[in-house]
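Page 47, continued from p. 46.
Same chain as before, 266 aa.
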Amino acid sequence: MNWGITCFFENRQEFAKVAELAPLYPINYLEIRGERPFFSPEDLTKQTLEFFKEVIRKSGLKVTLHATFYDINLSTINSYLRDATIQCYKKYVDLAAELRAEVMVVHAGYIHKDAAEIEKIQTMASRHLIENLRILGDYAASRGVVIGLENSPPNPNHLMIAEWNRHREILERTDHDHVRAVLDVAHAFLQGLDIDHYYGQIEDYLAELHVHNNNGKEDLHQAIDLGEIDYAHFFKNRVVRVPVIMEIRNLSEAIQSLEWIKKQHV
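Result:
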């Protein structure tokens, strides 16, 4: 199993600890959370980027990048915002390539709850999502990066991807070798879905798997053994061939999760 970690780092000192942890645990990947205030293209100077690259080099880990999902909507029906979204994500693809990241994770976005029942809006949002994914797929392919489309946790707005059938449909219609799936197991669990079934239906499209835990109600990103999801059962007799990234809310629970995988021998 190719395990990896990401933490909701608050400072560069915590990020630097990755290089210390890597030799102690069976991990191969580091996912960087590309979000303000910690890590975003518009904030990074050449000097700060070199710091991150040096930590990555010392750790010996492969890299994936989770692009921003704050204040952005890949399915927007607003043409002006759509142009800005593509421009933003291209900057993230450039950053992913600079870090030699294998995968750049994005969320599919949403339709505002007040417009969710309007068929014309649904059709437009779906069309824009697919067209945008193809544009990003082409751009990412030229830079050696795969776009990973992730399922979302519950939201007051109408989510474009919450269930496996919609997830798979969008990928099939996009039909691009550099646009793949990211299954977030904990998000599927929060949606009340059968996580084993979801995995089985999306497995052949996977670029990456996200794991963390919660209480079944909130997207808490707790340690992998601290919550309602039975990951020992989920991984039993299952060979996952893509990076399995533990998205944990803080460094101490990330270490707790690393200790769990060491004991489980998964």
